[in-house]
Amino acid sequence: MLPFYWYLLKVILCSGILLGYYWLFLRNKLFHRYNRFYLLMAIGLSMLLPLIKINFWQQDSQTNGAIRVLQAVSDGDAYMNTVVLSSQKNNWNLQTLYPLLYWLVSLVFVLLLLRTLYIIRKLLKQYPAKKIEEINFINTDDDSTPFSFFKFIFWNNSIDVDSTTGRQIFKHEVAHIQEKHSYDKLFLNICLIFFWCNPFFWIYRKELNMIHEFIADKKAVEDNDTAAFAAMILQSAYPRHRFELTNNFFYSPIKRRLHMLTKIDNPRISYFVRLMVLPLGIIVFAAFTFKAKTNNSIYHGKKITVVIDAGHGGDDAGAKSPDGTLEKDLNLAIAKKVKELNENKDINIILTRETDILLTPQQRVEFAKSKNADLFISFHVDGEPLSQKPMQSGMVFYVSKNQYANSNQSKILASAIYNEFNNNYGLKINGGITQRQYGIWVIQANTCPAVLIETGFITNRQDAAYLNSHAAKETIAKNVLAGIEKYASSLTKENNLQKNITITDTVPSATIYNVKYTDSAYFANADFKNKALVIIDSKEIGNVGYKYVETSNEKYNTVTIYKPAEAKKRYGIKGKYGAIKITQRESTIISGESMTFDDKTKNVIVTGDNIKLNGDFSDYLIFVEGKRVTAEDLNKIAPNSIRSINVTKSEDQADNSDINGKKSIIYISLKSKKEDSNNKFSNVSANDVQVKSVVVEERKDVPQDLHSLKQPALNEITIEGRQITDKQITVNNKLAVIEERKQQQQLTSKTVQDKKLTEQEIALLNQKKLQLQQEIESKDDNKIFIKTETTPEFIGGQQGWLDFLKKNLKAYIPVNNGAKAGKYTVLVKFIIHTDGSISDIKCVNDPGFGTCEEVKRIIALSSMKWTPAIQNGRKVNAYHRQPVTFVVEE
Prior knowledge:
This protein is α/β, with parallel strands linked by helices.
């Protein structure tokens, strides 16, 4: 109702201004027809002008904050759309009473209008009508007559129509019919049904009724016998009833009617006051229709070229919706809308195609390169086979994988666009930003930052209906353009800042990790820049904000950012705006391609090629392949020989007698010589252990028919003079390796490369294969993923989740616990298992008033109602986060 209230207020203001002009310059003037149409026009404009919006742009001088870079992979923590559930402290209050009261009064006016029409209809049926030219004359003995209504004159028997008075009254009513005054009355009474609260409309009705009488009086005077007509008005008896829809002869203040009959007009003055309506109209029109709108263009630098690619085209139609809409047409419409809505002269939008033509992915990339594109954005619409019941919905953002040069900048560009869609799109966003395992040519072959956007699922009827709407295309275009501008305007500053920032919210505090896949820092808002707590080498500087770091001439080795929630845990109330922990002395830094954090064991595992260790590790307990080494020995290890590093806090290893006050324990696993040369085997070490481990990995060099072999391949390698047998078995098209460690003399009579095994040996190995498969499946089932290719989803999608919450969640919980009016958002984290069950439910934040406990209860209730995450084509256990917002209203 609030927008309607604002509209009512604007109608009242506009009608008051226009009535003020009438009252000062037009009222009681002799140009009655002009006044009549002015009042009708004023009423219409008062209702229409507040609905018209004409935007004019003005430049905004403010610059936009830095872009928050999102995770560059789709993970299990991706939010579904935030669910907002409202509750009120009282069932009845003024806010609920106002609309009821308003429409109740409107209903009363509707009933009065219907009652008047019913009485008129009753008179028509009760008394016969006589046709006089175009007029229907009805002679009655009703006290409310005489009056006219459209082409009907309802006469009173007590008045002789042939007398002088009767003829003037008749002529007066005929004038009402000829001037069509009944239309004015009906229009104004309908307006009052909806705008009865506008006091100026009641004055309009009164003045319009008077003008009707002035016009009819003037026509009723014969031979300018004004005195006789005035005497007739004074001598006539007033009826006892009057209807607002009819033109009663005996209605009106007699004094004003007599005054208008005798008034002399001044042509010059009347012309001048009528002419003054023109500037008034312009002023009112501008005041109520023109809206000053800030130009949101925030990029005003070097001109950049953005190539917008409409996927598919020509013979390649792409996916198809149930109603026959083709993906290629939707993609082209969206791309054209982006170009149409671009108003920034510093951004040049170029389309790969503007008609229905077919381009290969290679041609699209070459086109972008030929235009020296600074950015590349490709539009697609996802789809599922129509033979299945389409269930998937929502949009996805894709960027190239990490090995491509444009990957990092593509992630930043995708993050900027993602942020625009996150709270302004009609469909959900599936996950964060995704890197597809098999790659996408148009984004990975481009040299500039490139993003592919799947705007929805065309095979989903709801998605298709939304994407076909004008509003959806405009929203997509505006969001993309806004993301481009924010990326372009913040790029230089953002890149410089990102190089100096490492996130440590979820890793042991003793070591700072420079890892590519972690979230960016919380540095986008003004409070953080001006009020965040700054700590330099364990010494608190104070709440001076990140501005202190930027303007200081000091050199820092590391800068660690803590978001407010984590900062408050570490530093109390001083950390409510976030914290910045800085070191100037040399720090210990471990860097690698990716990081895995085990939430249960609190261990951090860094993997990937060229793992590097820099700094002073004298305060750490270090083990290499199970053997304790010194910090000096650690520096002698070549980075490319390290397979992985496992770090755990020392307090979590109380049973280790060698800790002696060390900060953390570092376990380093090295690559084998064989693995180091051709990367063929995993987890091969020189320890004399009977069976070391079982490893499952993707193997691109494995023949497609390897899984069908009746016996496993046997290979021999030698490490430090000892012979090692690695038995390779393919399970589910993946290579499994059983690593056996035995002394050389025990192997001489046992196995030789390429030797054919006996039936007994084959049976034994097949038994091991079965055991291995069970071990592999058990291992995958027990693993909990943070990031997955396909995120978990509630059965029934977003609408099903909303329906479930509305049915089961107790939205009144914060009200019952004394919460004040406001919003209370709970972010809950939990594990969704492969069977759809739920465990390990935790509130990431707790706004209090019982909201956390209620959300945990409802999440537990939703167990077995989720479709699990998918990784490498298999169902896996995965973490999921879900925000729920309670709104308490007064």
